[in-house]
Amino acid sequence: MPTLGKRYLCEKCGTEVLCNKQGDGKLECCDTEMKLKEVKPLPSSD
Questions:
Q1: Using the 8-state DSSP alphabet, how is residue 20 labeled?
Q2: pLDDT number for residue 40
Q3: What span, in angstroms and rounded, lies between the C-alpha atoms of 23 and 14?
Q4: pTM of the entire predicted model
Q5: Which pLDDT score, from 0 to 100, does residue 8 have?
Q6: How far apart are CA 12 and CA 44, in angstroms?
Q7: Does the residue 23 lie in any domain?
Q8: Can you name the residues that pair with 32 across neighbouring β-strands?
Q9: Would you say 14 and 32 are in contact if contact means Cβ atoms under 8 Å apart?
Q10: Residue 19 and residue 17: Cα distance in Å, rounded?
Q11: Suppose 15 and one of 10, 19, 24, 36 were both cysteines; which one would form an S-S bond, judging by CB atoms 3.0 to 4.6 Å apart?
């Protein structure tokens, strides 16, 4: 089930989606399930 506010990525074609409505099911692209995109750490403000 996609999580509201999270980004998902297709590893085959590079399509990226932002979930703006949570619901049952799964996100698919290129006949495969899309993976949760990793969060990039913010640079430190030293």
A1: -
A2: 84
A3: 23
A4: 0.77
A5: 95
A6: 32
A7: yes
A8: 29
A9: no
A10: 6
A11: 10
Residues spanned by the domain of 17: 7-36
User: Cα torsion at 27, 28, 29, 33 (round to 10°)?
Assistant: 100
Token readout for 43 is: 């640079």
- Residue type present at position 1: M
Look up residue 45 and give its two tokens. Answer: 């403000």
Residue (of 12, 3, 2) closest to 32 by Cα position? 12
Could you give the number of structural domains in the chain?
A: 1
Q: Are 27 and 34 within 8 A, CB to CB?
A: yes
Question: What pLDDT digit, counting tens, does each position of 1-46 carry?
Answer: 888 999 999 999 999 999 998 888 889 999 999 999 988 888 888 6
| pLDDT value of residue 31 | 95
> If you count DSSP H runs as helices and E runs as strands, how many of each does the chain have, helices first?
0, 5
In a domain, 46, yes or no: no
